[in-house]
Amino acid sequence: MTTQVLLTRYNLPSPGVESLIRARDGWLRERTELFLRYTVPSVRAQTCRDFSWLVYLDPESPAWLVELMSSLEAESLLTPLYRTSVPPDELVADLRAVAGDDDGGLITTNLDNDDGLARDLVERLRAAHVPGSPAAVYVDHGVILSGDALYLRRDRENAFCSVAEDLTAPVTCWADWHNRLHLHLPVRHLGGPPGWLQVIHGTNVSNRVRGRRVGRRRYESAFGGLLDQVSEPSATTLGRDLLVGWPYRTVRDVGRSTLREAIVRVGGKEGLDRLKDRLAARSTAG
């Protein structure tokens, strides 16, 4: 048997740039609205129901959030776990508790609390699992929602990362940043239709519009009501984005990625985090 688990960091206490954003008034309620609008329905709609969902929350979460999580737990949708942090040994213990007596395969998948999944993502990951061959697994294609616009994106190291392995010594999808799992495991890429939905909104920490503009009709069967707000773009709009918008975003992202990689090579992950902290502090002060 294979144990399959979605992992979500909901509002864990965190230092640095993210803590500055999360300290803003209303952040938690706004994020919870997104969670209920996109994340929860997409998990409920999965074609394969043989999985668990662990959601990690701050022990000091407000009563209304604890009550909400209890109601979702009552319908067997998720398991809320209240921690100040999730060190690797505790995560592994939680996963083993989910697996019970099953000592077979394990698939962990990161799911942010403001994003969504295609209806068949869990099923696709399970079907692609190769027992005895540990790997970081990415479904390469997804869609990005910004306002009433939808963008098709190919991201070979996206945040919806999974790790397929066994339970003897799990690494999990939280072993490192989603774009650094290749340092720990072989990588397997899954093609096919979009498997994930990333939502751009005012409280995003680092996400931005990427990919090329598309209409919603081709993707409604995979994402259903999650795309209700998307307007159908005209041929002129699609053409303009193909010739101008998409190339601009591609060049911009290449520049950002090159700079980020250079900073990490020189100062490590901590160096990048320190730079983000300084920029965020400057923005907050302004």
Describe this structure as you would to a colleague.
The structure is a single chain. This protein has two domains: 2-232, Spore Coat Polysaccharide Biosynthesis Protein SpsA, Chain A (Alpha-Beta Complex); 234-286. Helices cover 39% and strands 21% of the residues. It has helices at 17-22, 27-44, 63-74, 88-99, 121-128, 220-223, 235-285, and strands at residues 2-9, 52-57, 79-82, 105-110, 116-117, 135-139, 141-146, 149-154, 162-166, 187-190, 196-200, 212-214. The strands form two sheets. A seven-stranded mixed sheet has the order 3-2-1-4-9-6-10. The protein has a five-stranded mixed sheet with strand order 5-11-7-8-12. Helix 3 (63-74) links the parallel strand 2 and strand 3. It is globular. Mean pLDDT is 86; it is low at 279-286.
